[in-house]
Design goal:
The structure is a single chain. With 316 residues, the protein is an alpha/beta fold. The protein folds into two domains: 11-156, no CATH class; 157-316, no CATH class. The protein is built from 13 helices and nine strands. The chain has a five-stranded mixed β-sheet. A four-stranded parallel β-sheet has the order 2-1-6-9. It binds iron/sulfur cluster.
């Protein structure tokens, strides 16, 4: 029978001008296909920091510049210094958030940009210094360093997008699951389901988390869950390399290969080599593993999050 995976609904903070509202300086919004595809799977919390600090729509452009080592926000056409207003809005907004799983902010923006924001040497924006981040995004990144925070520009890169989606849905699942865990056995079940997902990210952390689960007991469950949560968030921060994925795939294959004939084994191992060298996509190997797991009725493997970390419709 087909295993039907269910996914937690991530709570996602989204820049309001990404498909939602015409709040950009020029009175327009930005259409982004990936964000359009993702948002029906999420619970959205929208934010437009520039409108929130009282700038109207349309408005004169604002810029980021560096002065005495501090990033500042300025509106050259009106001479308005906006740094303190933006920082105090960011603090208030961030403080009002609860149970957030991730952020998608607007790239290049002096407020929301996670990457590629123009930073100037002067408040008039005449001399370009470097590319950096927007002021609001800087505060978000400081406060939520363990959560997936990206902008729609970086998410055009397939590897960054896949890692973002994997993290976003895993963080949401972790949040929902931990809320309902009342027994150590339920924590064990959760950890079991994430074994290969965690292995792909970090074998060392997988081991540490396994130890944490083994030490959990009825008496210390609350503290154990909090420590597990923190370890989990840290473990999945870095994008796994091809080598780490190949190693994880071979571990899964190890459960299945004894049932395969010589030709099937050799064929799969060749595909793993091809994947390592960038000649085939990981998706191909995952589909082989899923098919073998179904064929040999290996429910432990079929239920592994690694084989489908987020809804398939979001792939591509
Ligand atoms: S980038 Fe941020 S501040 Fe600018 S319009 Fe979009 S949501 Fe508002």
């Amino acid at each position: 029978m087909l295993y039907v995976r269910s996914f937690a609904r991530p709570r996602l903070v989204l820049s309001a001008c990404l498909n939602l509202k015409p709040v950009r300086y020029n009175g327009l919004f930005v259409r982004d296909e990936f964000v359009l595809k993702l948002t029906p799977y999420c619970e959205l919390i929208e934010v437009c920091p520039e409108v929130a600090i009282g700038l109207g729509v349309p408005r004169e452009k604002v810029i980021v510049y560096l002065k005495d080592g501090q990033y500042r926000l300025f509106q050259p056409a009106t001479g308005l210094e906006l740094t303190e207003r933006m920082l105090s809005f960011a603090e208030e907004f961030i403080g009002s958030l609860s149970e957030i799983d991730g952020f998608i902010l607007k790239s290049k923006s002096p407020s929301c940009g996670v990457s590629n924001t123009m930073v100037y040497k002067d408040e008039e924006g005449k001399e370009f210094l470097k590319k950096g981040k927007g002021l609001f995004a800087m505060e978000v990144l400081k406060r939520f360093e363990d959560l997936p925070v990206e902008d729609e520009g970086r998410l055009k890169n397939k590897e960054i997008r896949e890692h973002f989606l994997s993290r976003l849905f895993a963080v949401a699942d972790l949040r929902e699951s931990l809320k309902n865990i009342e027994k150590v056995s339920q924590l064990m079940e959760f950890h079991k389901r994430y074994k290969y997902f965690l292995m792909a990210h970090s074998q060392v952390r997988l081991k540490a988390m396994g130890k944490k689960v083994a030490e959990a007991s009825k008496g210390n469950l609350k503290e154990a869950l909090e420590e597990y949560r923190q370890l989990f968030l840290q473990a999945i921060k870095r994008k796994p390399s091809r080598g780490q994925h190949a190693n994880t795939i071979l571990h899964i294959f190890g459960h299945l290969s004894r049932n395969l004939n010589k030709g099937e084994k050799a064929h799969f191992l060749k595909l793993v080599e091809d994947y390592k060298h960038g000649r085939v996509e990981r998706k191909l190997l995952i589909e082989f593993l899923k098919s073998y797991a179904y064929r040999f009725e290996n429910t432990y493997l079929i239920s592994q999050t690694y084989l489908e970390p987020y809804p398939e419709e979001l792939e591509g």
